[in-house]
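Have a close read of the entry that follows and walk me through the local backbone shapes. See right below:
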Amino acid sequence: MIVAYLAYLGLTDESLSILVLSGITNLLLPLYWTNFKQEEMNNRVSNPVEHFRIENNLVTIGDSKLLVEKVKRVAIDVQDKVAYCSLPFNHIKPGIFPNFTFASEQADELKRHIGLKLPSATIIE
């Protein structure tokens, strides 16, 4: 938001009042938050153990496939009633890494699954 304001200021030499900036911020932040939550729900799986597969020397998360020896750390975090699983050190593209969300009650089951099938990986909580 600050960058957009500075660009506007640089291009027009006009400043905006605090009231206008507050209005813009109060409109855009809820839209951003709604979009973020929608992406989270689109990435939610019902069976994390089935979604995080380890077979034939490959770790498969959804459509992403990685060699087992490349996966050294798996992040699993529980916030409220949602659990998050990701491979933050295994980027598919710059800034994009395999991840998904699931019900927090299934977090321990997924940790056991990863511990058995991928013992060389460290689970980061």
About this structure: The two ends are 32 Å apart (CA to CA). The chain has four helices and seven strands. Residues 67 and 103 are 27 Å apart (CA to CA).
